[in-house]
Design brief:
The chain has about 80 residues and is an all-alpha fold. The protein starts with a helix and ends with a helix. Helix 1 packs across helix 2 and helix 1 packs across helix 3. About 15% of the residues are buried. Helix content is about 55%, strand content about 0%.
Length: about 80
Amino acid sequence: MSNTYDQLVEIVKKLHDAPSDRISPDVTFAQLDVDSLTMVEISMGIEREFGVPIDDNELEEDLSLGATTKLIDSKLAQ
């Protein structure tokens, strides 16, 4: 995948103890058992890493890592 995806995975792995073998572009935050507090921390991590704001309603538990990557890339392109 892209550099954005790799950076997102690093953020998720740093903030959530998800096994590496469960992480893929198709997996959702819910499938990784990410709770709401960790979702906020991931959102803040994305904002710090990429310099793009992520609203609380944009990062949802049923969003896949691949879809989150596309969201970040679209915000970077603006």
